[in-house]
Amino acid sequence: MNYVVCVPDGCADEPSEGLGGRTPLDVASMPTLAGLAARGTVGRAAVIPAGMPPGSDVGNMSILGYDPARFHTGRAPIEAAALGLRLAPDRVAYRCNLVTVGDDATMSDFAGGHPTNEAATEIVAALDAELGRGAGAGLEFHPGVQYRHIMVAPASWAEADCTPPHDITDRPAVWPTGPVARELREVMDASRSIVSRVAAANGTAANQVWLWGQGFQPQMTSFVDQHHVRGGMVTAVDLVRGLGVLTGMEVVEVAGATGWYDTDYEAKRDAALAALAEDRCDLFVIHVEATDEAGHAGNAEEKVRALENWDRRILAGLVDGLDGMGEWRLLLLPDHATPLRLKTHTADPVPYLLVDSVVDGPGGTYSETGVADAPLVAGHELIQRLVI
């Protein structure tokens, strides 16, 4: 039996005036998904437990079958693991976004214009030389992907309340508060001249860093011990990759996986089919970020297009490929909602789909309205329904 988990990041939404009172899932042409829903089981999942922040760290941990209330320690240490960083107990990791803050102190772009990896690495190297290891400051700056990077600091820097930059798009910047707010603000202020200087040279729109999501590295049970199947994944996002590293999953790297609208959908689909066909794993996770990025941008057209790409460029060929290998089961759901209206994540329940290639379910419609009356299921319990 082969198992696949599909994660269209942040695809759940609210009815939108710009879409005629419908959601992107209602509008998108997704015949393959509609066919799977008609023969499967649809429902409603709480991937974000009550009281926890509605981020991809919490949501993807739930999808992988780990209760965030037990395992979650923060976002940044998960991403640090993806970069190969094993944090000592006396070190804390912060997510370090490259952002653009306007002259009026408004968060005009939480992603700093989506710099290339090469341009971003130049900026992070300069930060490490002038504010981090090169300055003997007890800080380390490590490059990640595009605008997403890591700062490592002493454990004494852990206590602060920090606002995710994507929560304040086009709004006044909300600076850190708490015991180490002064230290964090000093780093963010000092970064402006460095980031602006290097960004001007390489054509990047970012003008400073934003620190948030801090935590100590979590200790997580291996995926095979947790679920008794061998797991693999493909993603362009360090956060999701880090969960794979921390749980001992096979993390497959593919060329063209960008974490943006232009990501290579077919390469991710083919990576899943190859890993299963070659018996490297029993369960494979396909994660695509594009729907989330469109939600953050408030771009309905791109969100609908990303959903249609999922259907045409992943699901259609995935089902055919799985059929050729024998029996299979599939779980599809996002890690959280990213409503176009809000341009940020919410903790609202999301629709899920379970499909068995042999045993048909009751059928239904995969959309927010299609599952509105379904009972709520804890997100971290769904993978056990998949691999029974």
Q: How would you explain this protein's 3D organization?
A:
- The protein is of the alpha/beta class and 388 residues long.
- It has 2 domains: 2-72 and 219-386, Alkaline Phosphatase, subunit A (3-Layer(aba) Sandwich); 81-215, Alpha-Beta Plaits.
- It has helices spanning 24-27, 31-39, 56-63, 68-71, 76-82, 117-130, 181-202, 223-227, 238-246, 265-277, 290-297, 300-323, 382-386; strands spanning 2-8, 41-46, 91-101, 107-109, 140-145, 148-154, 208-215, 231-234, 250-252, 283-288, 328-332, 350-356, 376-378.
- The longest helix has 24 residues, at 300-323.
- The protein starts with a strand and ends with a helix.
- The mean pLDDT is 96.
Shape: globular
Please tell me the total number of domains.
2
Strand order of the largest sheet: 9-8-10-1-11-12-2-13
Distance between the termini: 11 Å
Number of distinct beta strands? 13
* Biggest sheet features: 8 strands, mixed
The fourth-level CATH homologous superfamily of the largest domain is: Alkaline Phosphatase, subunit A
The CATH class name of the largest domain reads Alpha Beta
> What is the percentage of strand-forming residues?
15-25%
CATH topological fold name of the largest domain: Alkaline Phosphatase, subunit A
Low-confidence spans:
none
The helix content, as a percent range, equals 25-40%
